[in-house]
Amino acid sequence: MKSKSISQGRLIAIGGNEDRVNELVVLRRVIQEVSEVDYKVVVITTASEEPEERGEEYRQAFNSLGAARIEILNISERVQANDDACVKPLEDVNLIFIAGGDQLRLTTILGGSKVLDAIQNRFAAGALIAGTSAGAAAFSSTMIYEGKSEEGLFKGRVLTTPGFGFVENIVFDTHFMDRGRIGRLMQIVTTNPTYTGVGIGEDSGVLLKGDGTVEVIGTGQVIIVDGSDIGHSNILDIEEGGGIAVENLRIHSLVSGYGYDFKQRRLLIPTGNADD
Q1: How far apart are CA 31 and CA 41, in angstroms?
Q2: What is the pLDDT of residues 89-141, one digit of tens each?
Q3: For residue 143, what is the DSSP state?
Q4: CA torsion, points 222, 173, 237, 244, in degrees to nearest 10?
Q5: What whole-number distance in Å separates Cα of residue 175 and Cα of residue 16?
Q6: Are 216 and 204 in contact (CB under 8 A)?
Q7: The CA-based dihedral angle spanning residues 101, 199, 257, 123, taken in that order and rounded to the nearest 10 degrees
Q8: How many C-beta neighbours within 10 Å does residue 43 have?
Q9: Of 58, 188, 200, 201, which is most buried by a Cβ count within 10 Å?
Q10: Contact status, residue 246 vs residue 186, Cβ threshold 8 Å
C-alpha cells in the first residue's frame, strides 16, 4: 500500500521536553535546517499555560543559537489570532516554532484565523515550521487531543479532532516512551490503516523532507506504527470501551540518523549501518 503525499513543505515535529539549556541537540538541528545566517524566528506560545516563561526560555535558546530577530507571539484569544499586528511578524520569518502545552488550545484559538493563514503561507513559501509536544501533535490533518495511555487499546477512548493539516495520513503522538502511549497510536491506525502513527520520544524529533520521507533527530527514539498489513481486527464487532484485537500491525523503532519512507512503508537505514 502506498500513501498520498505526506507534506509539501519543511517541518520538524519534536516529541517534547527538548533540551533548551545545555547541548541543545534538537534545536541546533532545527537551526541547521533553517540554513540562513541572519535568520528570524517567531515562537508561538498559545498552547502553554505558562506562555511568558516558555517564551523566555526559547528566546534565550534561539539567542544563543544566533538568531537575528526573535519575536514571541502569545496569542491567547481568537480576536488576537485575527489581528494584523500578530500577522505582521510572520510575513518574512524563516522559522516558526510552535511551543508545547495543549493542542486543543492551538486549534481552537488559531484554527481558521489570519495567523494560521500566515503560517500556512510561509510554509508554502519554504519557511521551516517546527513544533514541540502539542505544537507537533497539531501538525497533522487528524490529531489526538485526549486519551489516557492505559486506555489506548479500548475502543473509543482515544479522541481526535482536525489539526492544522500541514501533513496528511500521519498521526503524531509525543512524549511517547515516557508516557507509554503506544496503545493510542495502535487504536488510531487500526481504525484507519491509511494513517501511519509516529510516536516521538522526548528530546527527539522527525524532520519531514517533503518527499514522503522523514529523518530522526535528537537523543531519543521514534516509533512508527504501520497498519498496511493489518489482516483481522475486532474493531467493528465490539462495543465502546471493549478491548481491541488486531493482527499484523507493524512496529518500527528508530533512533537518530534512521529514517522512514511513508510512500513505500519501509525503514531507511543510515549509510554504513546496513547489513552486508
Answers
A1: 10
A2: 999 999 999 999 999 999 999 999 999 999 999 999 999 999 999 999 999 99
A3: E
A4: 50
A5: 6
A6: yes
A7: -50
A8: 26
A9: 200
A10: yes
Give dist(CA 39, CA 198) in Å, integer: 29
What average pLDDT does this structure show over 131-156? Answer: 98
Residue pair 138/173 in contact (Cβ under 8 Å)? The answer is: no
CATH fold label, 10-149+159-171+206-222+250-258: Rossmann fold (3.40.50)
As a whole number of angstroms, the distance between CA 239 and CA 40 comes to 51
In angstroms, the CA 34 to CA 69 distance is 14
How far apart are the C-alpha atoms of 5 and 213, rounded to whole Å? 10
Instruction: Count the alpha carbons within 13 Å of 170 in the hemisphere toward its beta carbon.
Output: 33
Phi, psi at 264, each rounded to 5°: -95, -5
Helix (H) or strand (E) holding 71, with range, is: strand 69-73
